[in-house]
Structure formats: C-alpha cells, structure tokens
Design brief:
With 466 residues, this protein is mostly helical. Helix 1 runs antiparallel to helix 2, helix 8 crosses helix 16 and helix 14 crosses helix 15. The protein is globular and about 70 Å long. The model has no long low-confidence stretch (mean pLDDT 88).
C-alpha cells in the first residue's frame, strides 16, 4: 500500500476513526488495532511475507524473555546470536543470495575456470532491511541491559510492524519507540496539525518534486549514449534532488502519520544538501540508519578509541557495509566506499578551513558524483557516464517536454526556498510562519501545486527496493 495512493487514504481514515473513536479508552485495544492494521497494510503488498515479520517478531520476543531469565554469559550470548542469525539469515537469503552466487561465478570465470551455480527467482520482501534492523535493536539493547524486555506481545508486535514506518523507516530504536506503546495516548490537536503539515510537505516532495524530476532522470540515464555531457550533469543533479525528496518525503509522511496516532518518530532528514562537511552530511541524511551503524557497528569495531589509523579503518568499513545494506549490487558498495573515503580524507584535512558556502558546494558536488554509482545499473555503466561527463564532448542540453522540465525547475526552487528559510531564516519558514496569512497561503499553494502538477502514477518510493 503506497502513501501516494487512494487505498492508503481510505485505510488511514478508517484506522484513525477506529483508533480515536472506538478504542480510545483502552490502550491494549489501541495497540491491537495498530498491530492488526499494520499487518493489513503490509499484506496489501504480498500477504505471503507476513510470515517473515511474524516469525521475526516471535523469535525476538522470545529471545528478550530468555535474556531476562538468564544471567549466564554463554546463555545470553547464545540467545543474542540466535536473534542475529535468524534476522540476518532471512535478510541475506532474500536480498543477497543471487548477488553472492553471481559474484562467485564471476570470480571463477575471471580466473579461467568454468563454474555453474543456480540463481533463484527470489522476490525481495518490501522493507525487510528496515524492520530487520529495528527488531535487532531490541535484542541487542536488551542484551546490553539498556532496555528491559517486554512481556506484552501485542505491544512488541505493534512496535516491529508499526505501519507508518514499516517499509522504509525511520529505523526506530526499541528504547525510543517501544515505551510509547505502554503510555496512554490522548488526541492532541496541535500534534495532529503538525503531523498533517508534515504529511503535506512530504507528499509535495514525493509527487511534486521527486516523481516529476524522475521523468527527466529516467529518460537521460536510460539512454546515456544519446545524451550530452551537460544533460548527464543535469540529470545527476536532478537525481540527487529526486532521491532526497523521494526518501525524505516518505520519512516526513511516516513521521507525520505517526503523530496522528500520538507517536513520536525520530527525524530522518535535516536538509542534507546544506551540510558543510561529510560528517555533517551523515548527521543530516538518513539519520536513523547512520546512527544505527554508528552504535551497532562503528563503536563495537572500536570507534575512535584506538588511534587515527583504526578510526579511519572503522569509518571506511562502516560505510562499505552501509553501501552493501542498500542493495545487492557492486554499485552500492562503491557508493558506500566513496563516502567512507570522503570521511577519511576529510578527517585528514580537518586543519584546512574554507568558507561555509564553498564547503557546501564541494560536499554537494562530491555527493552527486557518488550518486552516479547509486543510480547506474552497473559499475561499468557508471564509469561510462563519468567518462562522458569528463570528456565534455557536447554542451547541448536535453529538455524533452519543456513543460516537464520547466515545472521540475520550479519544484526544485520551491524546495530550495523552504530548506533555505528553515536553515537560515527559521522565523520566515512557510508552513510554520508566525504570520497566519503566510502560513495558510503556503499550505493552499502546496495543495494546489500537488493537485495540479503532481505526478500521480503511484510510483513506488525508491527505498522500497532496499
């Protein structure tokens, strides 16, 4: 079920009514409603994969109870590894089986050996990378005694499958989200109003910006040989905007939707293209994932505790793994390695001081360079695109349908205006402006823009494939 679909609109209204007008006097019934509704929401994609979420939920709930009963170091370690192996085992099989088989065969072929191995026609369950990490945070935190295990299966099941952020995050920590299922929730108009505004802006980012610029990006990247260097540069910049608005838009809709039901989710994006360093970029981009890898991979590897070389090694390894998390393709590994290298180099050159505007431009250009690998079908295709850009053989700009191109520029300018005001002139920001007239004019304008110029082809969010 897509956020930008009629079905979700009906689903949301029905669940909202039942939640606040039927089950509002009973916390357990509210949690049960969320639990059941979340399974309906996910089952709308493919009901067969509900068994994976259910199995993961039962395993980690049981592991949590087992950790509460056992104080022995070996028994606790065994329980933790049971959770890790089961959850990552599902993820590795469904997401990476064919990647490893194809890479294995390719390696043998490269060295002149003939080797046959069968690939499987495996459908990737939507959101498996997200809910796997979310439920792992529970068992790891219980094991580390940062969280007491729950005995409320319904609350835990609702936490794992919470429909606003089930398929593409934010990846919530159990220490933050799970306790909210124990707390009585009362309808708050201001909270709901803020949630609706977030959902509106998120919808603008998705259908008004991301899906519109994607028409240009798909055309150029889908036929690289027919387009000029300038067109490829513009398409790459457009893709940087597309992926930000697509994923950032989803996150805003998810956070806003959660607010409608009295829940608080962590911020996932914070105007990342205004970052003046890559360290800052990753404090603004996909915050829930970058902080997850920081706490559960980078710090356990040693973090910055063991000298400069090991710190840089840990950074690089963390980002390579982060790239691999994004998809079973060498393009994502190269993308992660690039960002790891950016951070290592940046840390080495920390003494060099440049003006903030120049640093923002440099970070954006290097981020766009890495996006080429993220968007390209293969590493070879990415290098073909880079080669064509570097050669700069033609300056002719492809515009395609001039209306599509022009409104893409308009949408990007509106996005930039809002991000710029929110960053540097927060008193002037649009939806939350102190001036009532500006606030309502902004809301009406965005509504009209979405209705009249939004692309309503019900395209999936990019991160659903991860």
């Amino acid at each position: 079920m897509l956020f930008n679909s009629f079905e979700f609109g009906v689903f949301l209204v029905v669940v909202f009514f039942l939640y606040w007008f039927v089950t509002n006097r009973n916390l357990k019934m509210q949690n049960l409603l969320i639990f059941v509704s979340s399974y309906v929401f996910y089952g709308w994609w493919d009901w067969r994969f509900l068994s994976l979420i259910a199995f993961s939920t039962i395993i980690d709930y049981s592991v949590g109870l087992g950790l509460a009963k056992n104080e022995g170091k070996k028994q606790r370690a065994l329980l933790l590894w049971t959770s890790i192996i089961v959850n990552l085992g599902f993820l590795m099989f469904f997401k990476y089986y064919n990647f490893f088989v194809d890479s294995f065969v390719g390696a043998f072929t490269f060295f002149g050996f003939s080797f046959n191995a069968r690939s499987l026609s495996i459908i990737l369950p939507v959101g498996i990378s997200f809910y796997t990490f979310q439920t792992l945070s529970y068992t790891i935190d219980v094991y580390n005694r940062k969280l007491k295990p729950t005995k409320d299966f319904i609350a835990f099941g609702a936490f794992v499958s919470f429909f606003p952020q089930l398929v593409a995050g934010p990846i919530e920590r159990a220490t933050h989200l799970l306790p909210q299922f124990y707390t009585p929730r009362k309808f708050d108009y201001d909270n709901a109003s803020a949630g609706l505004k977030m959902m509106l802006w998120g919808m603008f980012m998705k259908v008004g910006v991301a899906d519109r610029v994607s028409l240009y990006v798909d055309n150029v990247y889908g036929n690289v040989s027919m387009h000029s260097s300038v067109s490829l540069i513009v398409a790459t910049i457009f893709f940087a905007v597309q992926i930000y608005c697509d994923f950032g838009g989803y996150s805003l809709i998810a956070i806003g939707c959660a607010k409608l039901f009295g829940f608080s989710l962590m911020k996932n994006f914070n105007r990342p293209y205004l970052a003046g360093s890559f360290k800052e970029f990753w404090q603004r981009w996909h915050i829930s994932l970058s902080s997850w890898f920081r706490d559960y991979l980078y710090i356990p590897l040693g973090g910055s505790r063991n000298g400069s070389f090991k710190t840089q090694r840990n950074l690089f390894v963390t980002f390579v793994v982060s790239g691999f998390w994004h998809g079973a393709n060498w393009t994502f590994i190269v993308w992660g390695a690039l960002h790891g290298a950016y951070l290592v180099i940046e840390k080495s050159l920390s003494m060099i001081k440049l003006p903030k505007p120049l640093r923002i431009v440099i970070v954006f250009i290097l981020a766009c360079f890495s996006w080429i690998f993220f968007r390209a079908a293969s590493v070879g295709a990415a290098f073909d695109i880079i080669t064509k850009i570097v050669r700069f053989e033609s300056t002719k700009l492809y515009t395609g349908d001039i209306g599509i191109f022009s409104f893409s520029i308009v949408a990007i300018l509106v996005l930039f205006l809002n991000d710029f005001l929110s960053e540097f002139k927060p008193s002037l920001k649009l939806f939350h402006n102190d001036n009532l007239a500006i606030r309502y004019v902004s809301i009406v304008f965005i509504l009209l823009y979405i209705v009249s110029l939004g692309v309503f082809d019900q395209s999936q969010f990019i991160y659903f494939q991860f």
